[in-house]
């Protein structure tokens, strides 16, 4: 079988769903790999790093040749139209975002697996792109904040006195938030954090940060957070206002599955922050946790710098690609037998992630999102 690795259709996306080391592992599974020339360059891998693969001249040719295409972001509609009927697309497909994408996949009779929809079960953890890429995002968010803050993160003593450590407040303690806390702590900041899921209290404490208690608990389906009622929101805002005002840096990561990001930091809260304070809003892509965030921009709102990073994983494309590519390998490997593809259709990992098959949308969650 032929595995094609997509070159992302925009240059800002620097990740690749393959690393040079994985080529041999795929060959052991009977795969031959097709790449477009220069596919790895954005992640600093020259073509020569990928031994034994087949090169084609254009990214679109990869789609036309492969039985399975792996991608780090949704392909263009033209690329989908180039795919062979019955071929497979696997990767980050943002299946909630585009009915046109679903139509194109159906028209081409492509079997598509959106890895964002993996069930959060133990067996699926090695394939979990949301967790691996959230780890990268959380780490980078802390570094972006440190880079833009007008203060040191650590406590320092110097010849004329002592510098107090920066105060960092992290809102949302899922995978990204916990990594942001850990990274800010490694840099020596004093960290406070908040989430609506009560189990995060212990996780926050174990990283040496202080949990801010608003009294709001909001756990919904599957143990994920749910949206807050108006009364809960008011209660949350009252407590968080104080924590935000005291912080030099706020990092927000809050998200509710299938919903726009909850607005948590209001314009009034921003106005009460110290001049020069920095806010990094990791939810910018889902609309933002902060009033006024613009995806891909740094903007001053009053005296506060609000940053809405786009393509944040592409700031460290080598390790982000390595994690993503290993996730994809772990997803595909169980479905190869004796060197040939053999999909285990009864596997819940397959049914949860499959969005289109035989020309039809087959995923209930996607149908709900797209209305
Ligand atoms: P996410 O990206 O969906 O959300 C980020 C965080 O925002 C979550 O912790 C959520 O509780 C929080 N949040 C939502 N609304 C909020 C609000 N109003 N105020 C404050 N915080 C708010 O989360 P995620 O990183 O994908 O992880 C979510 C859950 O999945 C966690 O329980 C995590 O432990 C679990 N998980 C399980 C596995 C597994 O395989 N077992 C893997 C990864 C994550």
UniProtKB/TrEMBL annotation:
<keyword id="KW-0547">Nucleotide-binding</keyword>
<dbReference type="GO" id="GO:0008750">
    <property type="term" value="F:proton-translocating NAD(P)+ transhydrogenase activity"/>
</dbReference>
<dbReference type="InterPro" id="IPR007698">
    <property type="entry name" value="AlaDH/PNT_NAD(H)-bd"/>
</dbReference>
<dbReference type="GO" id="GO:0006740">
    <property type="term" value="P:NADPH regeneration"/>
</dbReference>
<dbReference type="InterPro" id="IPR036291">
    <property type="entry name" value="NAD(P)-bd_dom_sf"/>
</dbReference>
<feature type="domain" description="Alanine dehydrogenase/pyridine nucleotide transhydrogenase NAD(H)-binding">
    <location>
        <begin position="146"/>
        <end position="308"/>
    </location>
</feature>
<protein>
    <recommendedName>
        <fullName>proton-translocating NAD(P)(+) transhydrogenase</fullName>
        <ecNumber>7.1.1.1</ecNumber>
    </recommendedName>
</protein>
<keyword id="KW-0520">NAD</keyword>
<keyword id="KW-1278">Translocase</keyword>
<dbReference type="Pfam" id="PF05222">
    <property type="entry name" value="AlaDh_PNT_N"/>
</dbReference>
<keyword id="KW-0521">NADP</keyword>
<dbReference type="GO" id="GO:0050661">
    <property type="term" value="F:NADP binding"/>
</dbReference>
<feature type="domain" description="Alanine dehydrogenase/pyridine nucleotide transhydrogenase N-terminal">
    <location>
        <begin position="4"/>
        <end position="137"/>
    </location>
</feature>
<comment type="function">
    <text>The transhydrogenation between NADH and NADP is coupled to respiration and ATP hydrolysis and functions as a proton pump across the membrane.</text>
</comment>
<dbReference type="Pfam" id="PF01262">
    <property type="entry name" value="AlaDh_PNT_C"/>
</dbReference>
<dbReference type="InterPro" id="IPR007886">
    <property type="entry name" value="AlaDH/PNT_N"/>
</dbReference>
<dbReference type="GO" id="GO:0005886">
    <property type="term" value="C:plasma membrane"/>
</dbReference>
């Amino acid at each position: 079988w032929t595995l094609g690795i997509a070159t992302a259709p925009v240059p800002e996306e620097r990740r690749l769903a393959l690393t040079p080391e994985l080529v041999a592992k795929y060959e052991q599974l009977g795969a031959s790999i097709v790449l477009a020339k220069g596919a790895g360059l954005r992640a600093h891998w020259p073509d020569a790093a990928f031994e034994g693969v087949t090169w084609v001249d254009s990214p679109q040719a990869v789609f036309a040749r492969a039985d399975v295409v792996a991608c780090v972001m949704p392909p263009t509609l033209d690329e989908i139209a180039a795919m062979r009927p019955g071929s497979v697309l696997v990767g980050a497909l943002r299946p909630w975002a585009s009915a046109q994408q679903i139509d194109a996949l159906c028209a081409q009779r492509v079997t598509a697996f959106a890895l964002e929809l993996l069930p959060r079960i133990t067996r699926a953890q090695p394939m979990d792109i949301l967790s691996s890429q959230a780890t990268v995002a959380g780490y980078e968010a802390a570094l972006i904040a440190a880079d833009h803050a007008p203060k040191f993160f650590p406590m320092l003593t110097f010849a004329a006195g002592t510098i107090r450590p920066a105060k960092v407040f992290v809102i949302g303690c899922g995978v990204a938030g916990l990594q942001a806390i850990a990274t800010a702590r490694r840099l020596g900041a004093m960290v406070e954090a908040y989430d609506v899921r009560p189990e995060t209290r212990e996780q926050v404490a174990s990283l040496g940060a202080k949990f801010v208690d608003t009294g709001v608990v909001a756990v919904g389906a599957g143990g994920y957070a749910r949206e807050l009622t108006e009364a809960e929101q008011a209660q949350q805002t009252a407590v968080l206002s104080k924590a935000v005002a005291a912080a030099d840096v706020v990092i927000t990561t809050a998200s509710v599955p299938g919903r726009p990001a909850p607005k948590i930091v209001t314009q009034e809260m921003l106005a009460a922050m110290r001049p020069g304070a920095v806010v990094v809003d990791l939810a910018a892509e889902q609309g933002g946790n902060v009033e006024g965030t613009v995806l891909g921009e740094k903007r001053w709102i009053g005296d506060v710098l609000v940053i809405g990073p786009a393509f944040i994983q592409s700031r460290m494309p080598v390790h982000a690609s390595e994690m993503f590519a290993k996730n994809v390998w772990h997803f595909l490997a169980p479905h190869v037998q004796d060197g040939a593809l053999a999909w285990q259709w009864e596997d819940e990992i397959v049914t949860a992630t499959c969005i289109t098959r035989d020309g039809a949308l087959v995923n209930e969650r996607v149908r709900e999102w797209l209305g």
